[in-house]
Amino acid sequence: MEQKRFSKNDNGFICAHCGKEVKPLGYTSRNHCPFCLWSLHLDVNPGDRACLCQGQMEPVKVELDAKKGYIIVHKCVKCGELHRNKAAHEATIQPDNLSLLIQLTTAQI
To answer: Which residues pair with 73 in a beta bridge?
Structure first.
């Protein structure tokens, strides 16, 4: 049987990096802090919470995608794995920090 590649997991959390309270998006899984853009290395597939690493993931770069908009590239500070995540800068509840997203578009990995 084929395993699902995406599991909706839209829970709020306290950011492990900046300590701010992060509320659920309401329409998809929120996987990073909208204030500092940091994430945790929790998933093998989006929303499954099956990764054993659990390291903090630093936002190292933002790429622009014509269809998806801003894509945040996170790098795990524990194991070095890279993940790409769609930004939620247009969310009605706690939108991503747009100035930080723009600043990271010039970053080099």
So the answer is: 61, 84
The secondary structure of residue 104, as a DSSP letter, is H
- Give the number of other CB atoms < 10 A from CB of residue 97: 18
For residue 73 the two structure tokens come to 């590239």
- Which residue's structure tokens are 């993940």? 83
- Return the closest-CA partner of residue 23 out of 74, 100, 92, 101: 92
pTM for this model (two decimals): 0.87
- Both structure tokens of 53: 């690493």
Rounded Cα–Cα distance for residues 17 and 106 (Å): 22
Nearest-5° Cα angle at 55, 49 to 60: 105
Structure tokens at 92: 């009605």
The whole-angstrom separation of Cα 37 and Cα 61 is 11
CA–CA gap between residue 83 and residue 109 (Å, rounded)? 13
Q: pLDDT grade, residue 4 (50/70/90)?
A: low
